[in-house]
Amino acid sequence: MIFLRDFRHPVVLAAVILAVFYSGPLAAAELTAHRAIYSLKLGETRSGGKFVKAYGALMMVMEKSCDGWIMAQTLKIELDTVEGTTINQDLRYTSWESFDGGTYRFFSRNRSGRSRDEFKGQATTSKDGGRGEAVFKRPGGKTIPLPEGTLFPIGHLAWLIDRAMAGERQVPRYLFDGADGEGPQQVFTFIGAKVTPGEHGLTALGSLTERPGWSMSMAFFPVDSPRSKPEYEMEVLQLDNGVTPHMVLDYDKFSVILDLQKIEAVPPPPCS
Question: What is the value of pTM for the model shown?
Answer without folding.
Answer: 0.87
